[in-house]
Amino acid sequence: MGAMIKRLSVFLCLLSLVSSCYYFQPVEDFPKGDVSVLSANLLGSNSDKEKVTQVLLGQDCSVMVLVEAKPELNFIQSDIESAGYYVYFFKSNWSGFNIVIASKVAGLEGRHDNYIQDVNYPDPINFLFGELRYSIAGRNFVLLGTHMPSPYSFERSSQDQVMNKLSSLYPINKGVLIEGSGPEITSYPIVCGDFNAFPQESYFREFEKLGLVDSFIKNPDPYDYTWGFSGEPVLARIDYILVSEHFTILKQTTFKIPGSDHRGVKTALNLPEL
Q: Looking at domain 34-270, does it have CATH number 3.40.640.10?
């Protein structure tokens, strides 16, 4: 009996250790790259802010796009800033659909009126394009964090709205955004977030035509899905990081987000050649 109690005690100690480390996910085997990008839908009703913040910071990415972000409810903004990130907040007319971009490089915050309005709700919701512009090693980037309307109302007309909005605001061609009436400014786009769409949809062929590549091509697990009804994401891949074809994609993977029905997505990139 004494030996059994001792073994049980050891088991419980190990279980306690595993439980305390459950949300710590080692990233040693993930390449650093020149830039690393993270996209995570935190779930607007999530209140597990301490664990969420721990997981986000544990990924050690250059840039984080947080969807359905509510500072001090589902993440701790002050802890993110203390870790060396500049935090940019893009507010929707519904607080559950806010977007936050956190970057280790100071950027130029973009417009706050870039959105698609879904009128299929009792009160129309503005689904945002959070925009951040910044420069690394002589290259200019435009980062767009987005949250598309849900699949319950996301019909082809809405998808056309998205592409029309992108085309009018960001004339991307062959993976490059060229702007300016005087000296031209060349930027490389990154578009990421919760697209609420499956990769098989023709919708994504339109992104390919713009020269944007799904970083999932460098995910070694073809079934690394990001969303599920029960909070255990085994059903579908609806969260993406699309990057200019001029980047070199090193690797992509997903990670658990405490309290969310989504998995986060992150990718490591090498910069386009000058």
A: no
